[in-house]
Fold:
Amino acid sequence: MKPDTPASPSSRPPRLLDQVRQAIRYRHYSLRTEKAYVYWVRAFVRHHGMRHPKEMGANEIRSFLKWLVAERNVAAATHQQALSALLFLYRHVLEIELPWLDELERPKKPARLPTVLNLADVQALLAALSGRHALMARLIYGSGMRLMEALRLRIKDIDLQRGEIRVRDGKGGKDRVTVLPASLRGGLAQQIADARALFEQDRRLDRPGVQLPYALARKYPNAPVSWAWFWLFPAPDLSTDPVSGVTRRHHVHEKSLQRAIKRASLAAGICRPVSVHTLRHSFATHLLESGSDIRTVQEGGLPALSAHGTLATRFQVVSPGQEWSGAQRHLRPARRARRVAPTRHLDGVALLAKRSTLGCVARLVEAPCGHNVPHADRAGRPLAIRTCRPR
Structure:
């Protein structure tokens, strides 16, 4: 009698962490979420002596979370993330729906005020940066984009003539249009030329094309090697894609800009914690302080020109109480056309929110300081001529 042949690798059930990855990718969660959930599931199993989660329950989860709080002294946000990872494991990977899953208490996340720099600090911070890092920081501050939204920009997303940037697949999977500061057009044109040189080098060496989201590479086979899909900020070296394993040119790593911002804040003598996201909070706050009402920031003067949700879903704003009360008056519905006060940026360019003729999109119109700026109603008809002057 022949001995039993061992099962082939393809017939073996996937390992637990591979099952977690498959469940996360099936739901189209981000790569960062995948890494975080895999980390917490691995830590949970190791904490209990490599026992399988099917053999454990609510007591083991509470014991692990208490150990994180008592021994590791983690914050409430980290506590919530670990709990969410374990709930995902039991509900969507092991498919165990037990009453005790809903009885696990979640920690209350405290409300924190963001760090907002004044104009002098922003000027000193940007002056301490150089090269490509200076361009990326100015672009984030001038448009209000998030860090990864700026780094993932493609050549096709930049419109220098219209002064627009299209942000694809932003937070929550939403697309939007934001303003491109006029003072950065020259720098972006040079950056596009530098990216073109790397693109032509990769094509001469017949290297794999850039990474495309979802299955676009199969739908459009030539898109990964096309100029339109190339990165605006490509990395100088090649790297291996953690999902596909293909060695290709990726965009600049986020750590590069984050470390440059830290060094620049120390050189500028800023005594507060500064990150790349601080520029986004400062962008919104400076718009309100310079005269824009909160609706202008929500619909036109911020990264989301197509307003979805509330202002709090995009970024936090710190503003004096009297300016908040004055801005809140504009939240009341008005049947007559409203005037929008122009705002200013460090580059001396005034921004004005203007309704398009379709009445469904708020566009940002740029006007040099000292020029006459027309105020428009919802149909795009000018209401008055007001001179934009720097404050």
The radius of gyration is 25 Å.
